[in-house]
């Protein structure tokens, strides 16, 4: 994944309120940190639950 593609994805997540972005420097090198917001954590939890349900129903049909 290129830096520009990653940047667009992060911007989309930030605009949706799922992540908080913190930009800064370590020495002279730029660094970008991400953290999940409450809304982002809730969405991730629901997504993982849906994936587990799909995996469970697929597994039980074999």
UniProtKB/TrEMBL annotation:
Q: Where is the Winged helix DNA-binding domain?
A: 2-54
Origin superkingdom = Bacteria
Q: Which residues form a coiled coil?
A: none
Cite the Gene3D superfamilies for this sequence. Winged helix-like DNA-binding domain superfamily/Winged helix DNA-binding domain (1.10.10.10)
What is the recorded name of this protein?
Answer: Transcriptional regulator, MarR/EmrR family protein
Q: Which organism is it from?
A: Phycicoccus elongatus Lp2
């Amino acid at each position: 994944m290129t830096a520009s593609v990653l940047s667009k994805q992060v911007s989309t997540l930030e605009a949706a309120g799922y992540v908080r972005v913190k930009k800064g420097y370590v020495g002279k090198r730029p660094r970008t940190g991400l953290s999940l917001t409450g809304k982002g954590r809730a969405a991730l939890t629901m997504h993982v639950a849906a994936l587990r349900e799909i995996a469970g129903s697929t597994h039980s049909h074999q």
